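Hi support team,

I've been running sequence recovery on a batch of backbones for a student project. Most finish fine, but this one hangs at about 90% for roughly twenty minutes before it completes. I'm not sure whether the input is malformed or the queue is just slow. I've pasted the structure tokens below so you can try to reproduce it. Let me know if you need the job ID as well.

Thanks,
M.K.
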């Protein structure tokens, strides 16, 4: 277990300050929500806040930003000595360079940027710890549920050995809609975009990249491992059919877009993608855009959190609490984080055989699969469900490469739509 090292160079802040002066990087969806929240009257606000400058890409500004002074010059964000920098640009650059410069100048930074943390978290957090400057990122994972900072300050409670999470609201919403209402994946995605629940370019969400980046943030926090996002075995949701959700129920579970990981001193196994969860799994009932996280601690207890994971408003609330904490709370002990590689775990599989491949009888199928080392534990008959002619079954744990070989050896395997998603046990 990693031993936390206390950051000793932190200089306590001035508790008598009359107001908190913010420099806000970015006035997109999150930045605008932060600006709106700063301008809202709030009787219980501990200290008044003011945005002294906002960095924008172009000078065009909507009416909601009328009272926010802005600049297109990145170097101008340090003019007027802001108390805290709020990074809401998203992406890697110029966010990384500006955060490093803020730390160099001793200015606390708050960000919700999981890409930045997944790709450059080590560099930024090391720089912040060396300088004794707070760098807070509570809103980067499950934005509306403040848990990262709490665990960071409580190292004994943080002795976790595995986790499973639904950390992407967009894909949980799409998969829930496919389950409850049926319909075509692309239609459900288009409806999510119309309702503002999916980005105009949804690639990072539906391909699992956003979830893999958030998993890297979680692994840093709970496993004290620096795993790069591209090392996480990642699958998207675009191959799911509404029929898979119905048949998953028939087989005793449901399909959810998850991140899952477990670790020991020697290794980390992790993946991001759709998974079959038994119906008694702690996260199986989470619907819509809700997020959830289930942690297993070394004492054998399960700790669970659910709540809003996305949305400008929920993110802005957490960002502004980070601002307050960055000025009034002593930073949490810095973790000693080791670089690590991550392998895909050996899991069971939920498999759909479609088209001509579905015509195989259960006995022949099981015998052919058994010959390749794949054990089937339960299955449906061939049927037409929500317009898809297929059969579905669940296997015992086996490596993906061996499953793929076995499936390819089935008659007509190349003709029909075959899908395989990992299964998780209820205690994961
Ligand atoms: N696109 C992300 C989601 C936003 O849907 O969860 C919050 O990180």
């Amino acid at each position: 277990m990693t031993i936390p090292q206390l950051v000793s160079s932190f200089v306590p802040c001035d508790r008598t300050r009359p107001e908190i002066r913010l420099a806000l990087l970015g006035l997109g969806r999150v930045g605008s929500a932060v600006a709106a929240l700063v301008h809202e009257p709030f009787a219980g606000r501990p200290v008044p806040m003011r945005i002294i400058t906002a960095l924008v890409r172009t000078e065009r500004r909507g009416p909601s930003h009328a009272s926010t002074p802005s600049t297109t010059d990145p170097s101008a964000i340090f003019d007027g000595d802001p108390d805290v920098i709020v990074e809401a640009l998203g992406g890697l650059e110029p966010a990384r360079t500006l955060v490093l410069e803020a730390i160099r100048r001793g200015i606390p930074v708050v960000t919700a940027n999981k890409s930045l943390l997944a790709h450059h978290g080590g560099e930024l957090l090391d720089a912040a710890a060396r300088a004794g400057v707070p760098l807070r990122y509570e809103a980067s994972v499950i934005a509306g549920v403040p848990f990262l900072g709490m665990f960071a300050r409580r190292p004994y409670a943080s002795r976790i050995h595995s986790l499973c999470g639904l950390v992407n609201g967009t894909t949980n919403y799409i998969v829930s809609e496919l389950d409850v209402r049926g319909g075509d994946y692309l239609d459900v995605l288009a409806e999510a975009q119309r309702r503002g629940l999916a980005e105009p370019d949804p690639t990072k969400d539906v391909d699992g990249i956003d979830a893999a980046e958030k998993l890297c943030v979680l692994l840093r926090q709970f496993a004290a491992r620096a795993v790069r996002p591209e090392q996480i075995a990642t699958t998207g949701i675009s191959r799911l059919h509404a029929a898979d959700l119905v048949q998953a129920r028939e087989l005793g579970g449901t399909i959810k877009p998850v991140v899952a990981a477990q670790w020991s001193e020697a290794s980390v196994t992790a993946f991001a993608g759709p998974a079959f969860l038994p119906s008694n799994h702690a996260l199986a009932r989470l619907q819509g855009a809700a997020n959830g996280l289930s942690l297993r601690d070394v004492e054998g207890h399960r700790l669970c959190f659910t709540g809003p994971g996305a949305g400008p408003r929920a993110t802005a609330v957490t960002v502004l609490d980070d601002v307050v904490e960055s000025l009034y709370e002593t930073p949490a002990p810095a973790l000693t984080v080791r670089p690590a590689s991550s392998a895909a775990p050996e899991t069971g599989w939920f498999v759909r055989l479609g088209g001509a491949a579905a015509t195989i009888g259960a006995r022949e199928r099981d015998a052919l699969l058994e010959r390749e080392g794949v054990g089937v534990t339960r299955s449906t008959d061939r049927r037409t469900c929500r317009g898809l002619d297929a059969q579905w079954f669940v296997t015992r744990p086996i490596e993906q490469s061996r499953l793929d070989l076995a499936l390819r050896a089935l008659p007509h395997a190349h003709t029909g739509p075959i899908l395989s998603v990992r299964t998780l046990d209820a205690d994961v």
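--
Follow-up from support: It reproduced on our side and the slowdown came from queue contention, not your input. Residues 1-12 have pLDDT under 50 and may be disordered. No action needed from you.
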